[in-house]
Amino acid sequence: MTVPQEVPLLRSGPRAGYTGKDEYDAADKRLRRALAQLAREVDPGARVVGAQLAAAATSFLAELAARGEAASPTMRRRQRRDARLLAKVERLHAERQA
């Protein structure tokens, strides 16, 4: 997949998808198939490599998700709202305990 150099089209709706979704889905299926195959291998070295690949993929995807959430103004607003609500609940809980 090539990295887009121009601004992608604005999408709307819960099922709008995202740029590169088809390529991502294909790569995801290939990775899942490869990891499943490695997990079934008789050779313990191959199973170790599979576990290491799975851990690396999980870490990388979590990092990308965090970067995506940090880039979204909507997600930042939601995180600030959630933090305020959590602080309010904790304050009310502390008042009730006192």
Given the helix and strand composition, which structural class is it?
mainly alpha
Oligomer: single chain
Mass-distribution shape: flat
Radius of gyration over alpha carbons?
21 Å
Low-confidence stretches: none
Structure description:
- This protein is mainly α.
- Helix content is 73%, strand content 0%.
- It contains three helices and no strands.
- The protein has helices at 21-39, 44-71, 73-97.
- α1 (21-39) packs antiparallel against α2.
- The longest helix is centred in the middle third of the chain and has 28 residues, at 44-71.
- The radius of gyration is 21 Å and the shape is flat.
Q: What is the secondary structure topology, with strand pairs?
A:
Layout: H1 21-39, H2 44-71, H3 73-97
Helix pairs in contact: 1-2
Main features:
98 residues; 73% helix; mainly alpha; 3 helices; single chain
Write a concise synopsis of the structure shown.
It is built from three helices and no strands.
